[in-house]
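Input protein
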Amino acid sequence: MTTADQSGARLVLRRTVVLVGMMGSGKTAIGRALSHRLAVPFLDSDAEIETAANASIAEIFARDGEPFFRRRESEVIARLLTGAPCILSTGGGAYLAEGNRRAIGQHGVAVWLNAPLDLLWDRVRHKDSRPLLRTADPQATLARIFADRTPVYAKAALHLDVRHRASIEETTDAVLDLLKTRKDILEDLS
């Protein structure tokens, strides 16, 4: 599908863009904005899992455990990658699985939204919907997860440093600029 961006450029999304990164990095908000700007579907792997299970992610974790959730997550991501190019937001742990990284590389491109730890904490500290942060010291838990996951997220094909106080629109512009550097992903037909 061809769409025009704010400058009038005619853009065609050639491959699915998979947003990866920590909880609170902006994957859902930026994903929705990108899909709107490119006139392509927005899909959220966590929402798809919740719909299929008729339960929240927190409920699935509590009832079935994280290994069960990760298996369902991989199945859902593989299915979503086989459709027409879209914007796909994934849960924070999805990119950790080698099979998911391989599938994303074959059918799309991973864009890492690299937000600094203090920004992530500001965004997630008042939310109770993060099962991995249901610990005695959620800030320390977030810091540990951040340290563990950052080397894996760094394997993404494209990286965007998320800036403090950048609006959704500004961050979306930056992602679009990054995508435009790869004609195999986003082609400008202007």
Remarks:
- The beta strands are 2-4, 10-13, 16-20, 42-44, 87-89, 108-114, 158-161, 186-188.
